[in-house]
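Pilot study result, target chain (186 residues):
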Amino acid sequence: MFVIWLTGPSGAGKTVLARALEEKLKGLGYRVEVLDGDIVRKTLYPKLGFSREEREMHNRVVIYMAKLLSKNNVITIVSLISPFKSVREQARREIGKFIEVYLKCPLKVRVRRDPKGLYAKAMKGEIKNLTGYNGIYEEPENPEVILETHKMNLDKETEIIISKAEQLNYLKHRKKLMETFNVYLN
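Predicted structure:
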């Protein structure tokens, strides 16, 4: 199958979008798994820090997992800040069928959302080098999809990504899919 790689700073909407995409794609009859960076980190190596080297190692593990799932006919949705361009390029090279989705959202909106309280801690000086605040986030240069999550609703975001997957021939076009279902129903 293929991998949908959701990237963007904390609070951009990656996790919420990943779950909505998962539900929609499963509803279309596909096998789908979500690799959420926070859950992978917490499950496999909870004491891992956030240095550049540790982030790159974490991202390489997620790349490997996504590649295996994809190779076994599972649409894989990766929800991962993945702040470094070089790591996202590595993912693209290793995985092959790859849709990079950049969730672009202004800092003031991310601060307002602050789902994990990270921005509040960074503003108090409790967190240093928070990605997208005072830490590095290298914006994607040529993602397949850019979503301005502060301007769109979740349905529109999922529709854009699924349409891109159809355009790239990673998914059957829904019209053809419905025709196939109708043949079986009649």
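One observation from the pilot: The first helix runs from residue 14 to 27. A full batch analysis is planned for the follow-on phase.
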